[in-house]
From TrEMBL:
Domain (MacB-like periplasmic core) ranges: 20-233, 426-645
UniProt name for this protein: Putative ABC transport system permease protein
Lineage, opening ranks: Bacteria, Pseudomonadati, Bacteroidota, Flavobacteriia, Flavobacteriales
Coiled coil: none
Membrane topology: Multi-pass membrane protein
Record-annotated ABC3 transporter permease C-terminal domain positions: 290-402, 686-797
Broad class of the protein's primary localization: membrane
Length: 805
């Protein structure tokens, strides 16, 4: 019996070779898209699975009225809470301190390090290579090295490094190596090349609202997480009130501090803040949903083509029933045929995934491999379910034919088959229209962001970040001043400036300010320490007032320029804000005076709102040690030569022994668009895939249906109908279905895009033209495909179809 089923299946595949190829191709592409996004999702979910007891480890996040939801906590919030709340078994902190150069003798390593405490190794038990984790970071003179870093510093004898001293160029201090560890091989955000004790913890012990540390709790099994979150939140609210009384600002009762605990195994995707190297869960889930739609579209094609072929197989069904075959056997036969097509598509899809994976990894900046056996198990089960779902409808439809009707030739007049095909075709075009609408709106939003006025002119400007920095003895400020003077002497350099914030990389160091005349008016602001020429350098527009005058002591000591958002937060417009005074929380409650208001500058991209910022002389307080880069404007002549001269100066005089790199400011800012440009690219590609699958399905379906009407065409031609009339008669039903499908898709497209646009602080108004263009585009494509087949039908040989009439 099975052999007979297979022979019948291959005969039908060969007879309907075009629809078979379209089915396999459509399903392969749909499965390929689904698999690529599915493996990305599984890869993101696999982070921190290597940690023993991970079910009891939680990442601590905070929300405050001033700073929103944050991934950082305060020192006492983490360590004092452990003593107060019995549910907390242990705690630790971690800070990524970026790259630093370590040296031993003539060897050096420029690697990424972290500041932490001893308890880190109890939470994250890295594999020990040498030494001991016990008291490994018990004081500020100890350091833990990864095996790779140790090998760079000590060579092949790195296992003997325990007890030896390495020097950190960031602070010119020596550290004793206490342990060598191996970084976990599984997916993890914890990949420090070295670790030492956080040197600033002692200063933070009483500062409950100084959010500076990534904190983690290990909780006792069975802890009520929601109850503990409430306790922690109440404690932070108490401390917020104490801090408000101390600094003289009003507490926001409507937006009190809140504490959230996120399981460490879900931190990568589900952190409520920006987390630690957080993934973009929303985009992944959207893409996964869209890939399911594409796969559904492929399944719809399969169902539609199978039901359209019913007239070719109706007599076969009738004969088989007459000779004793049951409906159940027929259903299993047709399900087998569908499974064979799906299995072939599954094999082709995996070949396509293997082929596309290197480019996909480059696009995602990941290193995903097809080496997880669970992937094949999951997708294999999915294939079986998909085959059943997509195969059951045509199987039941075909097996329901009545032998007496099919043998008389009455099967073609079944209205149920027509309604089923129309419904499925409508669903197919609804999905196509939805993708077109969304793709056009995403393209429009990304274009709007890229063309938005950023508030500055960064053309022909590069930024070079310092590799060696030190927060002691004004190291950063003195280094900046020296390099600025030296760089100005290089031919092709027209100007040099600096600031504590980096365009395209966001702002740092926030504080609370309040008006001197009205203590109830407070706002959170970012600190904008700048060099004297910064605002002129970037051609920032003044809305009122004037720039800081470095020759006036009053301007440089307590003068400030603010952005329009800062003025608005305090209830002023650019003109009325002039000469207003405010107290700061960062400079010993010193009073600052507003001398000018400038147009908002976008530091973090245009998807986020502009933050209030105060621009002031960088060398008047502790902010001077945050000067970690220089920004250099180049002449339009011989840019490449100027870049080479800057590089030569940098590697020989500025920072010898360190790797040199730079970035054009415009390009650096353009990175803030990358996420949305990738969304645009992916959606455009998915849109093309959807249209190709839908149109191939429409082409095959129209071919089958028009072939069934060739006898009608021959009769109409014999009676004198012209070609235009025949083509229109064969096409109009498809156009009507297309029109209905677009109108059905409009509310779904509107809802999806309105939700997507909510993520943007600056967004377009919902345009009408994508919905109209989607209608016309689908109508034109549908008409072009169906009318082509209809026109070919008018060229048939009349004798062939009328000789038996």
């Amino acid at each position: 019996m099975l052999k007979n089923w297979l022979k019948i299946a291959f005969i039908n595949y060969r007879k309907n070779w075009l629809s078979t190829i379209i089915n396999i191709l459509g399903l392969s592409v749909g499965l390929c898209v689904f698999l690529l996004i599915f493996i990305h999702w599984q890869d993101e979910k696999s982070y921190e699975k290597w940690i023993p007891g991970k079910e009891n480890i939680y990442f601590v996040e905070n929300k405050s009225a001033s700073f929103g939801t944050m991934s950082v906590s305060s020192y006492p919030e983490i360590f004092v809470s452990k003593e107060i709340f019995s549910e907390i078994e242990d705690c630790t902190i971690l800070n990524d301190w970026g790259k630093q150069r370590l040296s031993f003798g003539n060897n050096s390593a420029y690697v990424s390090g972290s500041a932490t405490v001893d308890s880190f190794f109890r939470f994250f038990p890295f594999e020990k290579v040498a030494g001991s984790f016990r008291n490994a970071l018990s004081d500020n003179g100890k350091i833990a090295l990864s095996d790779k870093t140790a090998h760079l510093l000590f060579g092949d004898n790195y296992l003997d490094a325990i007890g030896k001293s390495v020097k950190s160029d960031s602070n010119d201090k020596e550290y004793v190596v206490t342990v060598i560890y191996k970084i976990p091989e599984g997916n993890t955000v914890f990949k420090p090349d070295f670790m030492y004790k956080n040197p600033y913890m002692e200063q933070s012990k009483e500062q409950w609202t100084n959010y500076s540390y990534n904190g983690f709790f290990k909780l006792k099994p069975g802890t009520d997480i929601k109850s503990l979150e409430d306790k922690l939140s109440r404690k932070m609210q108490e401390q917020d009130e104490i801090s408000a009384k101390k600094w003289g600002y009003a507490v926001d009762k409507k937006n009190p501090p809140m504490v959230y605990l996120t399981p460490i195994s879900k931190m990568k995707l589900d952190a409520k803040s920006e987390g630690i190297r957080k993934g973009d869960k929303k985009s992944i889930m959207i893409l996964l949903g869209l890939s399911v739609l594409i796969l559904s579209l492929s399944g719809i094609n399969l169902i539609n083509l199978k039901t359209a072929q019913a007239s070719q197989r109706a007599k076969e069904v009738g004969v088989r029933k007459v000779v004793g075959s049951s409906k159940v056997k027929l259903v299993f036969q047709f399900l087998l045929e569908t499974f064979m097509i799906c299995f072939m598509a599954y094999i082709v899809a995996f070949a396509m995934v293997e082929l596309l994976l290197p480019a996909y990894n480059k696009f995602l900046e990941k290193d995903i491999k097809l080496n997880d056996p669970r992937l094949f198990i999951y997708t294999g089960l999915f294939l079986i379910v998909f085959s059943l779902v997509s195969g059951l409808i045509p199987a039941l439809y075909l097996s329901n034919f009545k032998p007496i009707n099919t043998l008389k030739g009455n099967f073609a007049r079944s209205k149920s088959g027509v309604w089923l095909r129309n419904f499925i075709l409508t669903l197919q075009l609804v999905i196509s229209s939805f993708f077109i609408i969304c793709s056009l709106i995403i393209h429009t939003q990304v274009k709007y962001m890229m063309n938005k006025d950023l508030g500055f002119k960064g053309d022909q400007t590069i930024q070079v970040n310092f590799k060696k920095t030190n927060w002691e003895n004004n190291f950063n400020m003195n280094k900046y001043r020296r390099l600025k003077n030296e760089l100005k002497k290089i031919s092709g350099v027209t100007d040099v400036t600096g600031s504590v914030n980096s365009l395209g990389n966001g702002t740092a160091n926030g504080s609370i300010v309040k008006l001197s005349t009205d203590t109830t008016k407070t706002t959170q602001t970012m600190l904008g320490g700048i060099d004297e020429n910064f605002l002129r350098f970037y051609k920032v527009k003044f809305l009122s007032g004037q720039d800081l005058n470095w020759k006036k002591a009053s301007d440089t000591i307590n003068g400030a320029v603010v952005n329009e958002t800062f003025a608005g937060k305090l209830g002023y417009n650019p003109k009325t804000a002039l000469n207003k005074e405010f107290f700061t929380g960062w400079d010993g409650k010193k009073k600052y005076k507003i001398l000018g208001v400038v147009k908002d500058i976008h530091y973090s991209g245009v998807s986020k709102p502009v933050e209030p910022i105060v621009y002031f002389n960088y060398d008047r307080n502790w902010i001077k040690n945050n000067m970690k880069n220089v920004q250099i404007k180049l002449s339009g002549n011989d840019i490449n030569g100027t870049l080479e001269r800057i590089k030569e100066f940098w590697i020989t005089k500025a920072e010898p022994g360190y790797p040199y790199d730079f970035e054009f400011v415009d390009k650096q800012f353009a990175k803030t668009f990358e996420k949305f440009q990738k969304q645009q690219t992916l959606f455009t590609m998915l849109n093309i895939v959807v249209l190709v699958i839908a149109l191939l399905g429409l082409f095959a379906l129209s071919s089958l249906l028009i072939e069934q009407k060739l006898k009608d065409v021959a009769i109409k031609k014999t009676l004198g109908a012209d070609e235009k009339t025949i083509v229109w008669d064969l096409t109009k039903r498809f156009l009507l279905i297309c029109l209905i499908a677009v109108f059905i898709s409009i509310p779904f497209g509107y809802y999806a895009m309105n939700e997507w646009l909510k993520d943007f602080a600056y967004r377009i108004d919902m345009p009408v033209w994508p919905y109209v263009l989607s209608l016309f585009l689908l109508l034109i494509l549908t008409f072009a495909i169906v009318s082509f087949k209809a026109y070919r039908a008018t060229k048939i040989n009349l004798v062939k179809y009328l000789k038996y009439e």
